[in-house]
Every structure is written in C-alpha cells, then in structure tokens.
C-alpha cells in the first residue's frame, strides 16, 4: 500500500485489504474511511471485515459508501464529521482513491479556498476540477461571519398550519428566541375551508392570506425551499445551495398530492367534469359542477391511507348530494363512492350517522375500489378492485362528474433524507413528537409517521406540545409534554348539519364538549355553526397567533416509584 498524501492529515489510496490495514496502523493512521459500497467487484473485502480488523488495532473505521459521481450533502456532512473526530492522520480509500479524495475536498470546502483544495488534490494525483463550481458555492456560503452558516435557535421547515402555529407557540413562551421559517410559498391557505368552498358556502378568497401576514413578528422568513437535511451537521441545505444551521429543527413540511400517480388525472382536472376539493383553484369548480348538474352519474373517490383529512372525500359527496336534493334531481342521480379502504370511516362510533345519509342519498358504496386512470375527454374512470379469489379486476365507469382525491406521499426531500423512516415519513415518537434518532429534531403535521388523522385540528394540538418540548430540548432536558393523537373531522353531511368526529390514537373518542352540549356522533346544527362561524377565526386569530384555546399541552407525569 502506497497512500497518496493530500495533506499531513489526510491521504487517499485504492482498495485496501487486511495487510494494508496493519500497514496503515504501523504508518500512524488513526482512522480509516471507506467511501466504496460493498460488492462493487468480485473479491472486494467488505467494509465490515476491514472495520473489525481496524477496531482490533485500536483504529477508527468509518463507512460512507459513495456511488461513483454522486456526492450528497449528507455524505459530505458525514465526511466532515469523521475528519473532525479523527485524533490523528486519516486514510481514505475506494476503488482507485478518487472518490475518497473528492469527498475530502468537498468536506474541506469553506475551510480552505477552492483553488487550494484543487491544487492539493492535483499535487497528490487527483483531478477535482469537476467539483470547482460546487466548491466555490460552498465557499461563498461559508463566507458569513465566523466562517459558518447562520445558526438559529430554532429552524422550522414549512410555513403551513403546523409550522406557523409552532413558531407562534414558541414565541408566546420565549419572545427572545431566534427562529427562522423556511417556506417558498407566497400564500398560506386555510385548507379545511375548501370543503365549504366546494359547496358554495365560503368564497375561495377567504381561505387564502399572504404568507407575510401570518409569519409571526420577529421570525426570519427564508423564502425558499429546503433542498436537503443534514442532521449530523445540524444544518438545512436550501434550494439556492446555501445552508442554515440550527440548535433545534422542527420539520413541518406537509405531504405531496401525487396527482401524477393516476394516469390522465392531472391533465383532466378543471375540465370534463373532473374536480377536487384538495386544490384551492378547483374547489369552486366542484360547486359549479354540483350546482349545474343534470341527472347523471357522479363518482367520488378516496385513495389508500394515509391522506389529509380522511373524511374530506365523502364530505364533498354529501354536500353535492344535498345540493341535488334541494334542486330536486337527486332521484335521477347515480352517486358512487369508490373507497380504496374497507370501511366508510375508521372510527366505528361515527359510522351509523354517516350510513343514514348514505341511504338517504342513495349512494352506492364500493370498498376496495381504487382509481387508477382517468380519461377526461371520454368521461371514463378506471378502477381496480380485488375480488374474493384475490384476482384484481379493472372496472370502467362513465361519469358526468368525478370528484377525485389523489394518492398522497411524503415530499421527496423528506423521503430521501435521514429523517425518514418506513414509507418515507418522518420517524418520530408518537407522544413527544421528537425524532427517534435525532434528539435535536421534532416534527409535526402531515409529514410524520404518527398514526393520527392528518388534519388541521391535529396540527393545532401538536404545535403546543412541540413548542414546550423544543424549549426543554434547548435546555438539554427531556420532553415534558405529550400528544394523545387528537384529530377532528367535521363531516358535513348536509348544509347546516355536521357529524363532528373527534378521536385520538387507537380510535379513542376525544370529544371537546360534553355530550349534552354537542353530541359528535349525531348530525347537529351546533357542529355546523362551529365549522361555519367559529373555526375560521380560531384558525387565523388563535392557532396561528399562539393562542391555545382548548389545546394546552398535556404534561408528562413522571411514573410513580412503586417501591417508595
């Protein structure tokens, strides 16, 4: 083994073996960094084998597998961390040594000038010129005072309901916090109102405010998106290539409506009778279709869970049916509900009231039926349904109106990040909302893997919990509050009446009011008044302002020592 020394602290070499590990220890190297994935070629010693040998010789071994030509921010952060933790000279290796050298150069960006990095690498026999632009961008970013990215007490990624409410709750408790919100959108939307827009009850403009009007005073608004998360470096990479640092990160990114997952759907939206209350610009089209409908067939769909507000697909259906009942054409309508799931609603206590309306409106329920294609011009929807024999059959249904709800997925920036767990959702403790692997990261809202309903009401209850737990984490303390999974779904079964579903983890009923005040399992006018008149101002003027009416965080009660 003949390593190529780039600096006295770092050398790079081609693939090593057991003998080379011993030679490295004898030469004074204290750390070995492998930048090669296992299994690239026959006979290649695995990183695990060499790690065991290095550990036996009291050397540190770090594996950062790099696919040729791909150097992610997370890889660079891992390299930087390994270099910083090294207690002596470091040896990096891959097939030829080039990936190790390149990763070293990218990790040094901001600490050395780009030309110096290129010169040192070239002198050792490695051409890093392809990384010149990236090195320059990183150097420019690191040119801030102190040579590091701007660091905030709290960085909140996402300016939706969850992110804004968390910032407001934090500032209510500690006004001196240095908080940044990363959000590229120009407008903030009250999405629960789109059901009412689709029924002609609300005007769309009332559900939209400019983002600057809801950002809490004193918070820095960073008007761009997050490009990647670097939890080992405690940084967030932004869309323009710059980075910001944090003491605590709160991820409230929301989810993605995957319109493209249903062929033909995206192209048909807003025309040919195809609509969805899941978009601000389409909810008015829902009302226009329903209010001008002639007797015909209307299809309403619901994809597989998880989705935002699991009741929203059928809310659109009930309110449309009520419009047709008032117009006297309901008897001539064929209304079908195609639900990819197996039940009408996931909490059984609310199903009887909903079934009353299903029967009243003559709705044909189709469970296990998933929308898989839309032909807008041909007014044809295709569904897949698994039969009793396990075979999947395709069914085509013509329509005059189609209210479609797309599959919903984590944002790509989340799914591809170290924050993600199974399915690409952010992996948090369901009670404390703290990340299971990174104690300086919390997450809430639609982006997490918590098994609660993804609703604004859930975010409203999560935000104060996250706020007090973030403050505890800033002091180096354990979480002090817990979230019980509360979510609310006001099921608008007709104009003027709502079944107010309120429940938590495991489907436990969690009513806000005593039953004699408001029985959520029955359709009531009081629940409609709450949805129509009270919830919008509560959202804009309480939730987003840190006023925690009826949602104060619940403290974690220490376990009683039974031996005491």
Automatic annotation (TrEMBL):
Protein's recorded name: TIGR01244 family phosphatase
Start and end residues of each Beta-lactamase hydrolase-like protein phosphatase-like domain: 5-110
Source organism per UniProt: Ancylobacter radicis
Coiled-coil portions: none
Pfam family, one: BLH_phosphatase
Domain FAD/NAD(P)-binding: 152-272
């Amino acid at each position: 083994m003949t390593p190529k020394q780039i600096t006295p602290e770092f050398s790079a070499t081609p693939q090593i073996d057991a003998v080379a590990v011993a030679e490295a220890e004898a030469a004074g190297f204290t750390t070995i960094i492998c930048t090669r994935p296992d299994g690239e070629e026959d006979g290649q010693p695995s990183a695990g084998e060499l790690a065991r040998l290095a550990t036996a010789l009291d050397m540190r071994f770090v594996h950062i597998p790099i696919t040729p030509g791909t150097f992610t921010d997370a890889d660079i952060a891992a390299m930087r961390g390994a270099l910083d933790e090294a207690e002596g000279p470091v040896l990096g290796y891959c097939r030829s040594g080039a990936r190790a050298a390149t990763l070293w150069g990218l990790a040094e960006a901001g600490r050395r000038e780009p030309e110096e990095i290129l010169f040192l690498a070239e002198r050792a026999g490695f051409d890093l010129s392809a990384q010149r632009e990236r090195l320059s961008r990183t150097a420019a970013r690191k040119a801030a005072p102190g040579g590091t990215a701007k660091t905030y007490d709290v960085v909140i990624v996402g300016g939706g309901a969850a992110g804004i409410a968390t910032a407001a709750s934090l500032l209510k408790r500690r006004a001196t916090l240095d908080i940044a919100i990363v959000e590229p959108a120009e407008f903030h939307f009250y999405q629960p109102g789109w059901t009412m827009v689709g029924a002609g009850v609300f005007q769309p403009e009332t559900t939209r405010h400019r983002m600057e009007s809801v950002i809490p005073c004193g918070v820095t608004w960073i008007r761009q998106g997050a490009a990647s998360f670097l939890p080992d470096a405690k940084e967030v990479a932004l869309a323009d290539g710059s980075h910001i640092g944090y003491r605590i990160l709160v991820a409230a990114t929301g989810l993605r409506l995957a319109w493209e997952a249903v062929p033909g759907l995206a192209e048909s939206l807003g025309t040919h009778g195809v609509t969805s209350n899941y978009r601000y610009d389409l909810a008015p089209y829902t009302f226009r279709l329903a209010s001008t409908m002639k007797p015909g067939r209307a299809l309403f769909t619901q994809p597989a869970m998880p989705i935002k507000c699991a009741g929203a697909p059928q809310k659109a259906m009930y309110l449309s049916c009520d419009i047709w009942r008032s117009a006297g054409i309901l008897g001539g309508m064929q209304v079908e509900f195609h639900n990819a799931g197996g039940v009408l609603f996931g909490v059984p206590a609310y199903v009887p009231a909903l079934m009353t309306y299903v029967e009243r409106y003559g709705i044909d329920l189709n469970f296990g039926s998933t929308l898989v294609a839309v032909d807008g011009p041909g007014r044809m929807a295709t569904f897949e349904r698994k039969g009793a024999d396990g075979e999947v059959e395709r069914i085509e249904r013509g329509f005059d109106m189609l209210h479609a709800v797309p599959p919903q997925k984590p944002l790509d920036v989340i799914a591809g990040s170290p924050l993600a767990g199974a399915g690409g959702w952010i992996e948090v403790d369901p009670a404390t909302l703290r990340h299971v692997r990174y104690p300086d990261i919390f997450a809430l809202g639609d982006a997490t893997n918590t098994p609660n309903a993804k609703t604004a009401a859930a975010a409203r209850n999560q935000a104060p919990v996250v706020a007090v737990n973030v403050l505890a984490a800033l002091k180096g303390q354990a979480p002090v509050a817990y979230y019980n999974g509360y979510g609310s779904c006001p099921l608008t079964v007709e104009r003027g009446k709502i079944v107010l579903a309120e429940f938590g983890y495991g489907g436990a009923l969690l009513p806000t009011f005593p039953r004699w005040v408001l029985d959520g399992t029955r359709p009531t006018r009081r629940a409609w008044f709450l949805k129509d008149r009270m919830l919008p101002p509560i959202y804009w003027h309480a939730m987003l302002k840190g006023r925690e009416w009826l949602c104060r965080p619940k403290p974690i009660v220490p376990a009683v020592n039974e031996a005491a």
